[in-house]
Write a structure and sequence with these properties.
The protein is mostly helical. The protein has one domain: Methane Monooxygenase Hydroxylase, Chain G, domain 1, CATH 1.20.58. Helix 2 packs antiparallel against helix 3. The protein is globular, with a radius of gyration of 19 Å. 34% of the residues are buried.
């Protein structure tokens, strides 16, 4: 079979990853909007659930394409890891939203808003990195984005430690402290996963170089 027959499969992988990155940004945009309103109700949860389901479908399409394609644009293991980790970002956003509703955490919380701003910056940079994979021979966009993601993750580590310390020193009731501590830790975990994804992207570029 001529080599060119395989080329559309490469384009499909890039298209699917671009769509997955868009869903990730869409989920975080919704979360940030609800955080700024201080409302995590059924309408909010359903909106993010739909995005999470769409992200899952794209991840499954990537894995299915991987199993059916002989020639891939980069390492098969990296494709598998990238699809799963990107989906994990959306899964976490959905899980945090559900937890906010379950715990009945109402009203605007400045720390949740600050974390959501950091997460938005991180996923926007991550989206740039993902979309840069299509043209990996010009890696500067990818490297710059991944450096930014690393910087944001370091900021989030400090933010988590600071807000949890203040939380433990506050006069809130113990149950409330436990709830908020879990939320802050989960929000920081989102940024950890973003950094994990960026490391996969950097690994892909190094291998392609």
């Amino acid at each position: 079979m001529p080599f060119y027959k395989f080329i559309p499969h490469e384009v499909k992988f890039f298209d699917l990853f671009d769509k997955q990155a868009d869903k990730m940004v869409e989920a975080v945009t919704c979360f940030k909007e609800f955080a700024e309103r201080g409302v995590f109700d059924d309408t909010c949860i359903e909106k993010i659930r739909v995005i999470e389901h769409e992200s899952d479908t794209i991840a499954h399409d990537i894995i299915d394409s991987l199993n059916r394609t002989f020639i891939t644009p980069f390492d098969r293991e990296d494709i598998h890891s990238l699809a799963n980790e990107l989906d994990d970002v959306v899964d976490l956003i959905y899980a945090i939203s559900k937890r906010m509703r379950l715990y009945k955490l109402k009203g605007k919380d400045k720390n949740v808003i600050e974390f959501s701003n950091l997460i938005m910056r991180s996923v926007q940079s991550l989206s740039l990195a993902i979309k840069g994979l299509r043209n990996h021979r010009q890696p500067q966009q990818i490297h710059d984005a991944c450096i930014e993601i690393n910087k944001i993750e370091n900021i989030s580590d400090q933010l988590r430690d600071t807000v949890i310390q203040k939380l433990l020193e506050s006069k809130k009731d113990p149950i409330s402290i436990i709830k908020w501590k879990e939320i802050y830790e989960l929000l920081e975990t989102v940024l950890d996963v973003c950094e994990d994804v960026s490391n996969i992207v950097v690994s892909i570029i190094v291998k392609q170089g």
